[in-house]
Structures are given as structure tokens and as C-alpha cells.
């Protein structure tokens, strides 16, 4: 299979490169050689390589910064996927586009299904939702994979931030009233590969970790791993705080657990994030 990958330097982009089957032909692009917000550049790259599928791992992921840079966020998260969908349609290629749990407002009482109403509460979520809609309009055959709370051995993420802060401070306050599902980027990469191998039907799919947690729970697990592995001599003292005590420019959904039943029909395994966390802490 011929794959054009965007966002090759991101967490997911790098995990995909580690996992692609050896007989797949991959054209890896990064933000410096293919800006997905540039429609003409996207079309040129797609026409030149003639991929069977495009995987969009590129995104504007700075959730707080997006509040003051809505145009940049929209250019990458809304226009970017639109440009990729247009180019894919030109040559009859498939598109796998990655989206987010932040398309929801977090008021649900049970895990979100793919068909539930969306109502993002921040610029990042709104621009990602717009990207989904443009992809669906142009290319109903596209696979849109919504995921959440992504971490890996690459780039910057909550695990790396906690490990850094744990080295610098004796005590940390962590938000304990937002509930979601941590997800290892390597498992998302594997899920995408399986969906392409299985020629999954177009549509939205949810994919995240197999156990829910608050940021506080997640931090606790990180420090358990870090001390058990000797990465930290002593875990910092953790204090659970409410979202109001940790104001951020972007509002986040209080609850963003995703119901992942649909994707499991293709034999995709949910992310065993606790197992992955142990390896990520060891490698970080
Ligand atoms: N991280 C999370 O917690 C999370 C949660 C839910 C969903 N997601 C979704 O999961 C997907 C993968 O996220 P990730 O964590 O792997 O993100 P990431 O590590 O931030 O990587 C995103 C990549 O996109 C690239 N990029 C930014 N603007 C671009 C542009 N105009 N053209 C081409 N590339 C561009 C970035 O390049 P530069 O480094 O050069 O800017 C970066 O390498 C995204 O769709 C994201 O929205 C992530």
C-alpha cells in the first residue's frame, strides 16, 4: 500500500513510522515540507506520489494557544483536512483523518458515541470539528478517528511534563474533576494500520484508552512507574484540585470518555495505556 503521511514529526506521525508494515511504501511529510494549509502544495504532493491512502497526523494541537490564534488553528485543523480530502478525491485515494474528544462539551453521563451531538467548548475543538465536517462532505469514504489524551515517547505530552515537574518540585497540584481516557499514540498508529488493512467503511470512529482516569489519576500512575523504575527517587506530593483552581485560556470538557465499540468490530484493540505508560516512562 502507498501511504502519504502528514505531520510526520508529531507523536502519532512518529509512532506510525515505527509501525508501518515493511512492504508499505510511505511518503513521510512534515510541516516544513508539506504545509497542509496550502491547498496547491497538498494537491501537488498527492498528484506526484499517487498514494492509495493519505493519513493526516498533522494538526494544530496547542489547545490553549488556539484561543488567541483562532485563524492558525482553523488553517491547520479545518482547511488542512479539507485540502487533503479534495486531493484524495481527485485521485480516488482513501483518507484517514484524526480528530479529538474535544468536539464534545463534556456534559454527557455515559461514554460518547460517534453519533452523539457535538458541541465543542474551545477554539481547538471547534476547528477540529469543522475539519471533520469538511472531510465528510467532500469524501464520505474517509475514516475519521477521534482520539483523546495522547501520550508517547515522542514530542511533548502530559507524561513528559509530569516527569519534568517531578524532577523539579516536591509537590504538584493536579486537576481531578476532568475525566477522560489516556491513549498511547503507538496504539492509535496500530489502529489506523488495521483499519486500512481491513478497508474499514467510511465514517467516524472513536478510539482511546481502555480505562478512564482523571488527570490526577494519570499523574499518580506516572509517578508510580517513575519511582518503581528508579527514574525518580521520590514522587512529588500530589494534591487534587478542581478545574477552577487551575484556570487555562481554553475551556476543556469535564467528561470526554469515548465509547469505542464501533472500531472494535474491525478487530482493533483498545489502548492498554497503563502497559504503554510503563514503556514510555522507561524511554523518556
Ligand atoms: N495530543 C493530544 O492529546 C490529542 C488528543 C486528542 C486528539 N489528538 C489528535 O491526534 C492527532 C495527532 O496528535 P499528536 O499528539 O501526534 O500531535 P503533535 O505531536 O502536536 O503533532 C502534530 C504535528 O502536526 C504538524 N503540523 C502543524 N501544523 C502543520 C501544518 N500546517 N502542516 C503540516 N503539519 C503541521 C506539527 O509540526 P510542527 O511540530 O512543525 O508544528 C506536528 O509535527 C491530531 O489530529 C490531534 O488533533 C491529539
TrEMBL record:
EC number: 1.1.1.133
Annotated metabolic or biological route of this protein: Carbohydrate biosynthesis; dTDP-L-rhamnose biosynthesis
Cofactor note: Binds 1 Mg(2+) ion per monomer.
Presence of the UniProt keyword Oxidoreductase in the record: yes
Record-linked InterPro entries: dTDP_dehydrorham_reduct, NAD(P)-bd_dom_sf, RmlD-like-bd
SUPFAM superfamilies recorded: NAD(P)-binding Rossmann-fold domains
One function term, GO molecular function aspect: dTDP-4-dehydrorhamnose reductase activity
Annotated ranges, domain RmlD-like substrate binding: 1-283
Domain of life, per lineage: Bacteria
Broad enzyme group: oxidoreductase
Record's keyword terms, sorted: NADP, Oxidoreductase
Cofactor(s) it depends on: Mg(2+)
Ion transport is among the record's keywords: no
Reaction catalysis annotation: dTDP-beta-L-rhamnose + NADP(+) = dTDP-4-dehydro-beta-L-rhamnose + NADPH + H(+)
Similarity remark: Belongs to the dTDP-4-dehydrorhamnose reductase family.
Function: Catalyzes the reduction of dTDP-6-deoxy-L-lyxo-4-hexulose to yield dTDP-L-rhamnose.
Protein name: dTDP-4-dehydrorhamnose reductase
Source species: Candidatus Pantoea multigeneris
Gene this protein is translated from: rfbD
Amino acid at each position: 500500500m502507498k501511504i502519504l503521511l502528514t505531520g510526520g514529526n508529531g507523536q502519532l506521525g512518529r509512532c506510525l513510522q515505527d509501525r508501518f508494515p515493511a512492504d508499505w511504501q510511505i511518503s513521510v511529510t512534515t510541516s516544513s515540507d508539506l504545509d497542509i494549509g496550502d491547498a496547491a502544495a497538498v494537491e501537488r504532493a498527492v498528484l506526484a506520489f499517487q498514494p492509495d491512502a493519505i493519513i493526516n497526523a498533522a494538526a494544530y494541537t496547542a489547545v490553549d494557544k488556539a484561543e488567541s490564534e483562532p485563524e492558525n488553528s482553523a488553517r491547520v485543523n479545518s482547511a488542512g483536512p479539507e485540502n487533503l480530502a479534495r486531493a484524495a478525491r481527485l485521485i480516488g485515494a482513501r483518507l484517514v483523518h484524526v480528530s479529538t474528544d474535544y468536539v464534545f462539551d463534556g456534559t454527557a453521563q455515559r461514554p460518547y458515541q460517534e453519533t452523539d451531538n457535538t458541541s465543542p467548548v474551545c477554539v481547538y475543538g471547534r476547528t477540529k470539528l469543522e475539519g471533520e465536517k469538511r472531510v465528510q462532505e467532500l469524501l464520505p469514504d474517509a475514516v475519521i478517528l477521534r482520539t483523546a489524551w495522547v501520550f508517547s515517547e515522542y514530542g511533548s505530552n502530559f507524561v513528559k511534563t509530569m516527569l519534568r515537574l517531578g524532577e523539579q518540585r516536591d509537590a504538584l497540584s493536579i486537576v481531578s474533576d476532568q475525566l477522560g481516557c489516556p491513549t498511547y499514540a503507538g496504539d492509535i498508529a496500530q489502529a489506523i494500520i488495521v483499519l486500512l488493512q481491513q478497508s474499514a467503511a467510511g465514517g467516524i470512529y472513536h478510539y482511546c484508552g481502555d480505562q478512564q482516569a482523571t488527570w490526577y489519576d494519570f499523574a499518580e500512575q506516572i509517578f508510580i512507574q517513575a519511582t518503581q523504575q528508579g527514574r525518580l527517587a521520590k514522587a512529588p506530593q500530589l494534591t487534587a484540585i478542581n478545574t477552577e483552581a487551575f484556570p487555562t485560556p481554553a475551556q476543556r470538557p469535564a467528561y470526554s470518555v469515548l465509547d469505542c465499540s464501533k472500531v472494535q468490530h474491525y478487530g482493533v484493540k483498545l489502548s492498554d495505556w497503563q502497559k504503554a505508560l510503563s514503556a514510555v516512562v522507561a524511554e523518556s
